[in-house]
Design a protein that fits this description.
The structure holds two protein chains of two kinds.
Chain A lengths: L2 E5 L2 E3 L5 E8 L8 E6 L5 E7 L6 E3 L7 E6 L4 E6 L8 E9 L4 E5 L3 E5 L2
Parallel strand pairs in A: 2-11
Antiparallel strand pairs in A: 1-3, 3-8, 4-5, 4-9, 5-6, 7-8, 9-10, 9-11
Chain B lengths: L3 E4 L2 E4 L5 E7 L4 E2 L4 E2 L1 E6 L6 E5 L3 E2 L7 E6 L2 E6 L8 E7 L5 E2 L3 E5 L1
The chains are: A mainly beta, B mainly beta.
Chain lengths: 119, 112
């Protein structure tokens, strides 16, 4: 069965960095586009970044552009999000999600990893 | 950016009754070349990630009960639960994927 397991979250000071990982299993990872989506505590969902199956096409939300970097390692069935210059407003649960049918809606989600940016 | 606005923000419905959630996009999400509406619906229960219910505005995801249905076109969409069950208590989100991906603010569904 499809599984997405995020890791790497934690408490970080403003201006700090963190790298999130998402381990995928149960499907051919290299065939699928992937995204990171976040949810601030008690708030709604915000798409963060997207990467194509080969990694050649990448998009970011304006709110993270220039600070976050998405990448993937298809040999390791893993998705990553490098987060730099973190701000308090980046505090959220970060989900990795599988993009269905190259269409940018999401058929499988991980359980999420919490990132807290606070001094 | 395409802004998605859901109504109402919260909704209380009796068990067995119909629940209706609306979603409006700031511009059309209907792609004329394939006549598809780039609109999905998700259900999120407390402490869980969102679960895909509906895509292409009206196609039910595999395994989703048929009491869930989606309708609408262009800028106005509706998620209907025909007969509310206790396990349907959740927050529901619409999402457009016509340009990038943006979500509505969510609608909290409770039992009356």
């Amino acid at each position: 069965q499809v599984q997405l397991v995020e890791s790497g979250g934690g408490l970080v000071k403003p201006g700090g960095s963190l790298r999130l990982s998402c381990a995928a299993s149960g499907f051919t990872f290299s065939d699928y586009y992937m995204s990171w989506i976040r949810q601030a505590p008690g708030k709604g969902l915000e798409w963060v970044s997207y990467i194509s199956s080969s990694g050649s096409t990448i998009y970011y939300a304006d709110s993270v552009k220039g600070r976050f970097t998405i990448s993937r390692d298809n040999a390791k069935n893993s998705l990553y999000l490098q987060m730099n210059s973190l701000r308090a407003e980046d505090t959220a649960v970060y989900y990795c999600a599988r993009d269905h049918d190259y269409s940018n809606y999401f058929d499988y989600w991980g359980q999420g990893t919490l990132v807290t940016v606070s001094s | 950016d395409i802004v998605m606005t859901q109504s109402p923000d919260s909704l209380a419905v009796s068990l067995g009754e119909r629940a209706t959630i609306n979603c409006k996009s700031s511009q059309s999400v209907l792609y004329s070349s394939n006549n598809k509406n780039y609109l999905a619906w998700y259900q999120q229960k407390p402490g869980q990630p969102p679960k895909l219910l509906i895509y292409w505005a009206s196609t039910r995801e595999s395994g989703v009960p048929d009491r869930f249905s989606g309708s609408g076109s262009g800028t106005d969409f509706t998620l209907t639960i025909s007969s509310l069950q206790a396990e349907d208590v959740a927050v529901y989100y619409c999402q457009q994927y016509y340009i990038g991906a943006t979500f509505g603010q969510g609608t909290k569904l409770e039992i009356k």
